[in-house]
Amino acid sequence: MDPVSTSPTASAAPIAFLKGHGTENDFVIIPDPDNVIDLPAHAVAALCDRRAGIGGDGLLHVVRSAAHPEARDLAGEAEWFMDYRNADGSVAEMCGNGVRVFARYLRRAGLAEPGDLAVATRGGVKKVHLAKGTGADDGDITVDMGRAALPGGEVTVTVDGRATTARNVNMGNPHAVTFVEDLALAGTLFAAPAVTPATAYPDGVNVEFVVDRGPRHVAMRVHERGSGETRSCGTGACAVAVAAARRDGVDPAATGEPVTYTVDLPGGRLVVTERPDGGIEMTGPAVIVAEGHLEPTWQATAFG
Ligand SMILES: N[C@@H](CCC[C@H](N)C(=O)O)C(=O)O
C-alpha cells in the first residue's frame, strides 16, 4: 500500500493513489509517508477534476507528521498528518469526512490498529476511534472534532436576492450556518453564496443551509470553500449541530448533558454529539472505492 514513487520531477515512476468517500464527500488519497511527492495546486486540481482526472471534492495527502514542516511539532502526539487540499488546490485546516476516510486508509494499509488513533491536521490533532473489528471496509468511524468556536457578530447569507441571517461557527475551518424554510432556497449553488461582512471570513467560508426534519434532526446543503457544492461536509455538519443546539436553547456546558443531532446530507447521514466539556464527536461511514497508479503520460502533464 505504500506509494511506488518519489517526486514526479525526479522520477517517472507512477504515483499510487486511492479513491474514497465519506457520505459521498469524495477524495483522492495520495499515500506519501516520507513527503517526497510535490503536490502543487495545479496538480491537485488536475487529480480532482471529474472529467479529465480521477475526480474528488478534495485530496488527502497521507504523510508522516515528522516528514512535514507543518506537522513536525505534532509528531510526538500523532504519527500521521492529513495534508488536506480542496478540489481547486487550496489548503484547508480540517476536513471531517476526510479524517474518517484517512483513518480508514491507514487501517486498510495496516498502518493503524483498532482503538484510538491521533491524526494531525492544520486544525490540530484529532482523535479518531476505530472500533474493534474496524477493517478495510466495515463499520462507522467516530472522530473527536474538538470544540466549536462561536465568534459572534451578525452575518448575512444572500442567495438570489434573498438574505438570511447566519451563525459564524469555526470548527478549525470557517462556516456560516443559516436556517431556511426549504433547502431549495439555497438555489443552484453553482456559485458561492454572498456572505457579509467579508471581514467575518478573511480566508473565505463554507456555507450551510439547514432545515428542520424533527426533534434534534436537521437536513442541510453545503457550498464548500474551494470545492463548490458537495454532497456532504463533516465539519459543516458539526457546525450545523452546534448552531441548531444554540438556536434550540441547548448548551451542554450549561446543562451538563450531552446533546445529539442527526444531520442528513445529500450523500448520507452523520450523527453529531456535543459533550458538556464542549468536545464534539461525529460518527459516519468511510469507504475506500478503488486504488491504482497514475498513468505516466497523464501524470507528467498534470504535474508539469
Ligand atoms: N468536506 C470537508 C471540509 C473540507 C474543507 C473546506 N472546503 C474548507 O475549505 O474549509 C469536511 O468534511 O469537513
Task: Categorize the overall geometry.
Answer: globular
Helix and strand content put the structural class at alpha+beta
Contiguous runs where pLDDT drops below 50 for at least 5 residues: 1-10
Order of helices and strands: EEHEEHEEEEEEEEEEHHEEEEH
CATH homologous superfamily identity of the largest domain: Diaminopimelate Epimerase, Chain A, domain 1
Helical fraction: 10-25%
Q: What is the terminal-to-terminal distance?
A: 25 Å
Binding site for substrate: 25, 86, 96-97, 173, 206, 224-225, 234-235
InterPro entries: DAP_epimerase_AS (IPR018510), DAP_epimerase_DapF (IPR001653)
Family: Belongs to the diaminopimelate epimerase family.
Function: Catalyzes the stereoinversion of LL-2,6-diaminopimelate (L,L-DAP) to meso-diaminopimelate (meso-DAP), a precursor of L-lysine and an essential component of the bacterial peptidoglycan.
Structural commentary:
The protein is of the alpha+beta class. The protein has 2 domains: 16-140 and 287-303, Roll (Diaminopimelate Epimerase, Chain A, domain 1); 155-284, Diaminopimelate Epimerase, Chain A, domain 1, CATH 3.10.310. It has 5 helices and 18 strands. The chain has an 18-stranded mixed β-sheet that branches. The protein binds the ligand N[C@@H](CCC[C@H](N)C(=O)O)C(=O)O.
Secondary structure elements and pairings:
Blueprint: E1 16-22, E2 25-31, H1 41-48, E3 58-64, E4 80-86, H2 96-108, E5 115-121, E6 124-130, E7 141-147, E8 155-159, E9 162-170, E10 174-179, E11 194-196, E12 206-214, E13 217-224, E14 228-230, H3 234-247, H4 252-255, E15 259-265, E16 268-274, E17 279-284, E18 287-293, H5 296-303
